[in-house]
Amino acid sequence: MDLVFNLLPEALPHWARVGLAGVVCAVILVTLMALGPIAYVYVETKIAGFMQDRIGPKRVGPHGLLQTIADAVKLMFKEAIYPAGADKKLFILAPCLVVVGAFLSFVVLPFGSRLQAADLNVGLFYVVAVSSISTVGLIMAGWASNNKYALFGAMRSAAQIVSYEIPAVMVLLTVVTLVGSLSLQDIVWAQHGGLSRWFLFRYFPLMPVAFVIFFTAGLAECNRAPFDIPEAESELVAGFHTEYSGFFFAMFFLAEYTEMFVISVVASVLFLGGWMAPHPLLQQVGPIGLGPLWLIAKAWSLVFVMMWLRWTLPRLRVDQLMYVAWKVLLPISMVLVVAVGGLALWPPTANGFPWDRWAGWILTPLLFAYLAYMIVAARRWSARRTREMAA
Amino acid sequence: MSWARDVWEGFSTVLVGMNITWRHLFVNKVTLHYPEEKWQLPPKSRMRLFMKYEDCIGCGQCARACPVDCIYIKTDKRAPTAPAIWAADGTPIKLDTKLFDIDMSLCCYCNLCTYPCPTNCIYMTPEYEFASTDLTNHLYHFAKPNAKFLTVNPKAPAKAAAPGAPAPAAPSPGTAPKPGEPEPSKA
């Protein structure tokens, strides 16, 4: 925001410059983030297809690239139907609130050292706080629909988000104790200096567990499979958005994908070094900083993992969901808070164990090598199978 | 410690599943791009019916065999002045088939009509792309009452023309000519 602020002429009064800068930032962010889900939906349908040995959308545009645009246009022009007995005001307000809750987090997400709408000193706390707003919207949607499935979905969603916020916040505490600040920019700078300094690899066996817990809780918070019981289509038709149609439905969709992106960005900022490159040499090409690209690449990889998980795992039952939250994630995250807090107080190894200098440099290439090997193995298996089928 | 084992099993089996889906991202896809690529049909596929009018003797056995009554036949006795004609297998055609309609929207693709046909003139083709927005497009007219071969210089089939030739191939109760009828060679 200060970038835009400095661009504005100094003749303007201070309040006008602040206001204008805010509006410009908001317009840029909202435009980008409203267009993002179009890409995510396309990628998701393609991934879904490929994981099921299909090819996904193909007809609209080259390789189906325009499919989601066509879908979005269709949704916008569809009639919004208000169910009989619905509370019309709440019915309209609910999707707006969900979208606002999802978009508010963008204020503090750091896309670069200065590419940030506002560097709040309570940034992390702010993200946690505003992401709860959408829960209110979901309950409103369930209540206003005058539909039992919608209400079931909304109540499930509330129970789920309340449960999973606790381990998520617990894990955030571990990072905050290491950094000593809630500002996302400070958290990124604390991971300055390459892959081995990322929080994912600090105190080596501990912080990866924290990352997994945060990612799992994040999945649950944005109601993604395998934690999508609020909209479990085999049980609840469509959950809280059963009665929504047209543009309101599109807004729920938008909010879901935006939340996925927000959770991924927060996870990359906390554990994967935010806009820091894996090696300081890769941080910029000449004078051009690659920070935003690194952050977006990391966030999109995490979004990809979310989609990957969605098409891998079956949906959890409600009691299993609660079991995972309260009996697995919460105890482990509490132990982590104590352990990491204790280790951070230990001065000689303030930056971690001796072996977490190299853990990241070994594990990351190993992971990518394994994935690449699996690609080759899959191609070979596929070719052999094609030959057998032909014979 | 069963708790720890549960947690570990839950986590590791997720990784196993992710491994499988990752592999499937890269295997060959099974999708057939339908209008561009088509499935190769097995031989004797039962698709749209076809009737070769030139060989039809108008016996109506297909219509009687049809379980859904989708074949409509109307025949007249062939005028005595009209030249004698024969089906490809030598069976004399004694009836003028004025109407031979098959309603493919009723057809159940059972193939029962093709077995009794004495001249093998009705059969299933591998043609299956005949969806239409109008049901009447599924009513196929096979009769060609004005066809040239009915009146102009009919040729006796070589087999039947030979004197004393045996009954045409694959005689069956349906195909055997009636005792009183003249052989095509005599006509």
> CATH class of the domain at 49-152 in chain B, please?
Alpha Beta
Secondary-structure element order of chain B, N to C:
HEHEEEEH
Choose one word for the global shape of chain B. Answer: rod-shaped
Number of helices of chain A: 14
Radius of gyration of chain B: 28 Å
Rounded mean pLDDT of chain B is: 78
Helix content of chain A: 55-70%
Number of strands of chain A: 2
Q: How many distinct domains of chain A?
A: 2
Low-pLDDT runs of 5+ residues of chain B are: 160-187
Oligomer: heterodimer
Q: Report the average pLDDT across residues of chain A.
A: 82
What is the H-and-E element order of chain A?
Answer: HHHHHHHHHHHEEHHH
Q: Bin the helical content of chain B.
A: 10-25%
Can you put this structure into words, describing what you see?
The complex is a heterodimer of chains A (391) and B (187). Chain A has 391 residues and is mostly helical. Chain A has two domains: 269 residues, no CATH class; 34 residues. Helices cover 66% and strands 1% of the residues of chain A. Chain A contains 14 helices and two strands; from the N terminus they run αααααααααααββααα. Chain A has a two-stranded antiparallel sheet with strand order 1-2. In chain A, strand 1 and strand 2 form a beta hairpin. In chain A, helix 7 packs antiparallel against helix 9 and helix 9 packs antiparallel against helix 13. Chain B has 187 residues and is α+β, with helices and mostly antiparallel strands. Chain B has a domain of 104 residues: Alpha-Beta Plaits (2-Layer Sandwich). In chain B, 17% of the residues lie in helices and 13% in strands. In chain B, the strands form two sheets. Chain B has a three-stranded antiparallel sheet with strand order 2-3-5, with no helix packed on it. Chain B is rod-shaped, with a radius of gyration of 28 Å. The C terminus of chain B is likely disordered. At the A-B interface, helix 2, helix 13 and helix 14 of A face helix 1 of B.
